[in-house]
Amino acid sequence: MEVLPPRIELLTILDRLAREYRELPRSRPVVGTICLGAPVELAEAVGAVPVRLLSAGLEDELRGGRFLASDTCSFCKSLLGGLHRTADPPDAVLGATTCDQMRRSLEIVARDLGRPVFTFNAPRTMENPLARDFAREELRRLAAKLAAWSGVPFDAARLREALLRRREIQRRMRDLADREIEGRPALSGGEFLALARLFLTTPADYFASCLPEIEAWVQDRGSPYRRPPLRLALLGSCLGDGDGQIVDLAEENGRAAIVYDALCTGRRALGDAGPLPDDSFEALLTVRHDEILCPHRRPNDRLLETVARDLQRRGVQGVIFKTLKFCHPWGFEAVRFKEALGLPFLHLDHDLSNNAAGQMRTRVHAFLEQLLLRR
Fold first, then answer.
1. Between vectors from CA 237 to CA 243 and to CA 85, what angle results, nearest 5°?
2. 323-374: per-residue pLDDT in tens?
3. pTM for this model (two decimals)
4. Do 364 and 246 meet the contact criterion of CB atoms below 8 Å apart?
């Protein structure tokens, strides 16, 4: 075993912080979001609390199968199943017209859940200036609708405050994700993805209040690895509840660490660190479109270029590319990523069940053994 035994597991701390948030009384309307392209800062600017809705495992996927065709992605089916199961659904749902299956899911929520649905009609390309003008007008339209729903007038100053608050949180999270101690990551991939989950599923002000405790704990512990591990990247579809087995398999014996990911439930939620335009809506477009790169956009060359650059910067030695069944935006890109990155590459396509757990374990372990022989 190559991993140091921590005094208290970081995952235990994150679970406690998530539980403490759930136990707080709800004082503001909650807006569930289902995509990184959803402009959550608009909800904050009208007094609402945006939290990310994540898939919750096989039972919810099966339940959601009543609403979507069998060849629909597992993540969307699980989202719908979870929304119809929960006794405490969000007061509204906010999404973006990214992939067709997300768009269809929003339509079903509006039809069947009895909750308001707000949609950002995001152009697939911003190469044309007219498309960018259209996107800004869409954001203004959405701001007016959210304000009418919440009863709190929209204020551009509050929008900018929300953007800057999240930007500072993202900067601190990038620092934690990239922190190294003599070539050993300060966080395992599983720890960082759990931290990203807390960031996505709790209000920004609550998460900001949790960060000092987390940062102090990480600083005090140091790296969980005794020696520099094999360095992996995890790319592909969203990671939801019951979908973390790939991370566990890759890191279970401490010989390997996921030092980079390109998941929308992970590092892609952290955006960039550049300056924001003065205009609040242009700044929002910068944050939600220009910086959070998505495979559904055309052209999506910047996503591939950014991932390739980051893999080199992080010294990645092998890539695990995961796709959920029928997740077309990522599934169609697998061959392109494999050819462009030029690194050892393992593609895993799966649903939220454990039917192929044995096969997945065999493939991941064989991949790691091959990489270790190359060292």
1. 50
2. 988 888 899 999 999 999 999 999 999 887 766 778 899 999 999 999 999 8
3. 0.94
4. yes
Tokens of 369: 């053994």
**Alpha helices (runs of H) in the chain, residue ranges in sequence order:** 10-22, 40-45, 58-64, 74-85, 100-112, 129-150, 156-178, 189-201, 204-221, 245-251, 280-285, 301-313, 328-331, 334-341, 357-374
pLDDT in tens, 226-269: 999 999 999 998 887 666 789 999 998 889 999 999 999 999 99
Distance, CA of 345 to CA of 336 (rounded, Å): 12
Give the C-alpha separation, 42 to 145, whole Å: 10
Quick check: helix, strand or coil at residue 332? coil
Query: How far are the Cα atoms of 38, 62, 142, 188 from residue 155, in angstroms, in the given order?
Result: 18, 42, 13, 40
Q: How many CB atoms lie within 10 A of CB 296?
A: 21
Domain with CATH 3.40.50.11900 in the chain: 157-374
- pLDDT tens digits, residue range 281-326? 999 999 998 998 889 888 889 999 999 999 999 999 999 999 988 8
pLDDT range class, residue 215, cuts 50, 70, 90: very high
> CA 117 to CA 364: how far, in whole Å?
40
Work out the end-to-end distance of the chain between its first and last CA atoms, rounded to an integer number of angstroms. 18
pLDDT one-digit tens code per residue, 77-122: 999 999 988 888 999 999 998 888 889 999 999 998 788 999 999 8
Q: Which long-range contacts (CB under 8 A, 24 or more apart) does 108-112 make?
A: 108/67, 108/68, 108/80, 109/80, 109/83, 112/67, 112/84
Chain centre to alpha carbon of residue 111: 26
The CATH number fitting domain 28-150, selected from 3.40.830.10, 3.30.70.560, 3.40.50.11890, 3.40.50.300: 3.40.50.11890
The CATH number of 157-374 is 3.40.50.11900
